[in-house]
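Why do we bother with holo predictions? Because pocket geometry can differ from the apo form. Keep that in mind while you read this record for zinc ion.
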Amino acid sequence: MIIFGTKGYLYQLAVLTLVCGHCGNPSAHMLRKRVTKFTLFFVPLFPVSTKYTTQCTFCGAEQRLTAPQAEQLQLQAASAPSAGHQVRPGE
Ligand SMILES: [Zn+2]
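The structure, written out:
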């Protein structure tokens, strides 16, 4: 008997301040990656689908992103540190 199925993984990639397309507030958004993996005997083997989403922390609206869009946002998050975590030039 062969047991196979899928298992979902959720990764939180970054937190960004964006203007929400749903509620219109400039609020923190969670950038998330959702990976569904094919499993055989409960062992995850390979990803069957990868989805990127942003979720508004103000209204909870979720938006789908393409992989390039998600990469772009991750770069933005890395180059623009949030308040309370300042990077000084030369360090
Ligand atoms: Zn919103």
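The two ends are 59 Å apart (CA to CA).
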